[in-house]
Structure formats: structure tokens, C-alpha cells
Amino acid sequence: GFSPVLEFDDLDAISQHFLLFRNQSTDENAVVDTSDITQAIGVARLYAYPPDPTIGKIGRVAVIKSSRMGGAGSGLMTALEEEGKRKGFRCLKLHAQIVAKRFYESCGYVCEGDEFDDEGVPLIMMVKFI
To answer: N-acetyltransferase domain: from which residue to which, for each copy (predicted)?
Structure first.
């Protein structure tokens, strides 16, 4: 994992933050809050990736382990992509942990460049044209 101190940065202020909630009464996922939604199960952020305002950057994607195989992550990625289109981004980029690379590939992302290290965690840039 990453140090909690490093999880907060200047990009938080310019990012749009996403929360994915589990609807306890229907066991469905939703990105927006309603009175039936009681448990947050995922998070992510989206911002324009300088210096090109037509590129969006996805970051801080996390889904609790118990919700990872039920489509929650792909639902969160779809919401990020829809918002990226609304904002006029032509593509989205993200730094994927190597252990999550296959998940992002299943969402249509492709690797760009070589693996690199961040706090001992191997990552790779991935991109998807939207």
C-alpha cells in the first residue's frame, strides 16, 4: 500500500471525486447517493492531465475486496469514462498497479511505456481513447 500522508496532494483540489456505493436493499452498485445506499465500496478521482486539457487522468481507484468480482470496479470505470466524455476528454490515462493490469485491460485500456516504481509498487501507464 501507499503511505496515507502521500495520498493527499494538490491535485485533490482540481479533481472530481467519485464514490461508489452498494445499495443494501437491491445489492446493486450506484455512483450517486440515494436514501437506500448505505455502504461506500469504491473511490476514484478524475482531472484534466496537464498540459493537454483533452486528456483526463484517473487516479486513486480503489474498490473494497469483497466487491471486486461483482462488476463494481467496471461500473466505476464506466462512470469515470462517461464523465470524461462529458468533460470533452479524448482519452483517459491512469497509472495501473501491475497486479490490476488485467482488470484495466478488460475495461479497454492499453499499456503505454515501461513499468516504473512508486513507493515500491510496480506501475504502468495505461490509456484508453474515449
So the answer is: 1-130
